[in-house]
Amino acid sequence: MTDTLVNNVNLDAFAPQNDITLVTLDAGYAGNQFVTGLDLGDTVSLLSGQQAGGSELFLILDNALFNTNDLLNLKLSGDVFHGTTDFGTIDLNPIGLSAVENVNLDSTTHNSGFVNKVVLEAPGIQNLTIQHDAGGDVSLRLDGSILGGSVTGSLNVQAIGFTGAITDNTQIGDNFENVTFNAPNSGSDSLIFGNGNDSVTLGNGNNFVQVGGGTDNVSVGNGNNTVTVINNTSHIDTLSFGSGANTVNLNGTNGTGSSITFAAHGANVDQVNFTSTGNSSFTLEDTINGFAQGHDVLNFGAIDGNAGNYTYQEVNGAVAVLAAVAGDTAGKHDIVLDKTDGNVYIDWNGNHLLSTADPDMQITLTGVNHLSLAGTTLV
After folding, report:
1. 256 phi and psi angles, rounded to 5 deg
2. In-domain check, residue 273
3. Cα–Cα distance for residue pair 35/57, rounded to 1 Å
4. Which of 142, 187, 297, 367 has the smallest set of CB atoms within 10 Å of its CB?
């Protein structure tokens, strides 16, 4: 179709039926339009989307109500307009017409620095593949999309060969859906996930990732990454970082016992921000690997920002730890480092005891034998 689509199209109206496998909208679409009569494996290609801002394109697959493994190929080509190409909202089988379980989303351009923007409404989707054609990939913005709600309770997103940035600051997957998001070569991504058990692998860009209260596994590359964990449950998270300057925000009230690993990072500074003593509790401690003593930062300022409420000392061995705590300053957040094993203990209420009944903390810093107290931080 060489003109902008402004009237609905039913592919079943063309004889013989089911022979049309590719629908190309050269000039995009405007308003709310339907393309019906699509079949499993068909491709819809939009070569322009600039007129689609605020519009919605409904793509209806025949027999999706009965099929359990539907597939649709969707291509967005941002070659026509400079900057961001807005493809509007693309709705795959609206609610009530059953789900399209598998979608191949091709985000491409022949021009560097472009962005393809689309709101993809695909409730019930199980597998999303993000890719590009030989022309090259382009950053993909999915803010506002509906991705999730599958009958399996899981969503699998694969973007293995995609090198553009991927953004979805709404939420990928339903609130308790388990999401696998694999984009090991992508650019600087910004992604928010719910409270399922999520597995996220990203590349070497400057990534932002937020995960919820599930048992999450997040691995990011060598950029300057920010990972925020909002965990109010007992689920344990595993976070792994490359050699950039990374920030970990532990924003929930729990998640204790989690593991954080930093790669060797030279002059770059990694920082872990605690917002609750429950982020790393006594006897069920977080373990931080690759913490560079005298360089990296543990920040407790969000729990208590008054630097005068903290004390610090270093000792050798468990017996010396207990002795130091027994004689610590009453009413202060008394921090003790056991230099023999890198365990940091905090008698948070300063009652001269370490107890699971108190809001006391323990953090294991692998290989660390010396720290300094700087305000509300340990360095």
Report:
1. -65, 150
2. no
3. 8
4. 367
Q: Structure tokens of 120?
A: 């993809």
> What residues contact 214, with CB distance under 8 A and at least 6 apart?
176, 178, 194, 195, 196, 197, 198, 233, 235
- Are 141 and 118 within 8 A, CB to CB? yes
Query: What are the tens digits of pLDDT across the range 251-295?
Result: 989 999 999 999 999 999 999 999 999 999 999 999 999 999 999
What is the distance between the alpha carbons of residues 256 and 361, in angstroms, rounded to a whole number? 10
Same-domain check for residues 55 and 139: yes
Amino acid at 125: I
Each residue of 97-125: b (16+ CB within 10 Å) or e? ebbbbbbbbbbbbeeeebbbbbbbbbbbb
Closest by CA position to 298, among listed 363, 377, 214, 185: 377
**Which tens digits make up the pLDDT trace of 84-117?**
788 999 999 876 667 899 999 999 887 767 889 9
The reply to whether 112 and 213 lie within a common domain is no
Rounded to whole angstroms, the Cα distance separating 158 from 126 reads: 11
What CA–CA distance (Å, rounded) separates 288 from 280?
A: 11
Please indicate, yes or no, whether residues 175 and 32 belong to a single structural domain of this protein: no
Q: In this structure, is residue 275 part of a structural domain? A: no
Task: Give the pLDDT confidence of 7-21 residue by residue, as tens digits.
Answer: 999 999 887 777 899
In 237-335, where does DSSP find H-type helix? 318-326
**376 φψ region: left (φ > 0), alpha (ψ -120 to 50), beta (else):** alpha
> Do residues 95 and 190 both lie within one domain?
no
Q: 353 lies in which domain range?
A: 288-379
Last residue of a domain, one of 130, 151, 172: 151
Residue 80 pLDDT level (bands cut at 50, 70, 90): low
Coil/strand/helix, residue 43: strand
- Domain-embedded: residue 279: no
Same domain, yes or no: 147 and 183? no
Number of domains in the chain: 3
